[in-house]
Amino acid sequence: MSLNNVNAGRDVPNDFNVVIEIPMNADPIKYEVDKESGAIFVDRFMGTAMHYPCNYGYIPNTIADDGDPCDVLVITPFALIPGVVVRCRALGVLKMTDEAGGDSKILAVPVEKILPIYSHLQKVEDVQELTLRQIQHFFEHYKDLEKGKWVKVEGWEGPDAAKEEILAGVKNHESKGA
C-alpha cells in the first residue's frame, strides 16, 4: 500500500482522512511523508526540547498556503503510529504564519464511529483550555532554535474556518492537477 493512494476522505470537509506523521508526545523529531515515494522520512531533529502535544499529520490530496498538504493536529487518548490513516472531523484551526507564509493547523478528533468518547467535542471551545494553551505554546516556540525560522500564532478559529481551509486545500490540489 502506498500513502499516495489515500484520498482526502469520505465526506470532505465533514469526514476527512489524516495521515499521521508524528505521534503525540514523541521525541523531538520531525517526520514527513515523501510525496514521491510515500515513505516516511526524518525531516529534521528539532533543536528545542519539546514534544508534539497532539498527533500530527496531513490531509492527502490537499495543498495549503505553504504548498504542502493541509496540516492537522489529531487529539486522541493515545499516540498514533506514523503512517496510519485516521478518519477525522474538524473542531477548529490555529491560524499561523511562518517564514514560508500561511501555516495553519487544523484541530481535529477521530470521527465518532472510531472514537465515541470525544462526541462532546464539537468546536475549539469544547477542548480543555490547558490543551489549547499547550498546543499554542508548542507552535509559538518549536522553531525558536532554528536559524532563520520563525512563527507567528494568530489565534484559534472555529470549525467553519477549519472546513474552509480543508475545502480550499482540496480546490488548490485539483487546480494544480496533482
Automatic annotation (TrEMBL):
- A GO BP annotation: phosphate-containing compound metabolic process
Q: Which Gene3D superfamilies would you find in this protein's record?
A: Inorganic pyrophosphatase
Q: Which domain of life is it from?
A: Bacteria
Pfam family, any one = Pyrophosphatase
Q: Principal place where this protein is found?
A: cytoplasm
Respond yes or no to whether keyword Nucleotide-binding is given for this record.
Answer: no
Q: Where in the cell is it found?
A: Cytoplasm
Please give the catalytic activity noted in the UniProt record: diphosphate + H2O = 2 phosphate + H(+)
Gene Ontology cellular component list: cytoplasm
The cofactors it requires, by name, are: Mg(2+)
The UniProt record gives the binding positions of Mg(2+) 2 as 71
* Binding positions (substrate): 30, 44, 56, 142
Q: What is this protein called?
A: Inorganic pyrophosphatase
Q: How does it assemble?
A: Homohexamer.
Q: What is its EC number?
A: 3.6.1.1
Q: Which InterPro entries match?
A: Pyrophosphatase, Pyrophosphatase_sf
Keywords on this record? Cytoplasm, Hydrolase, Magnesium, Metal-binding
Q: Where does Mg(2+) 1 bind?
A: 66, 71, 103
Q: CDD domains of this UniProt entry? A: pyrophosphatase (cd00412)
The family annotation for this protein states:
Belongs to the PPase family.
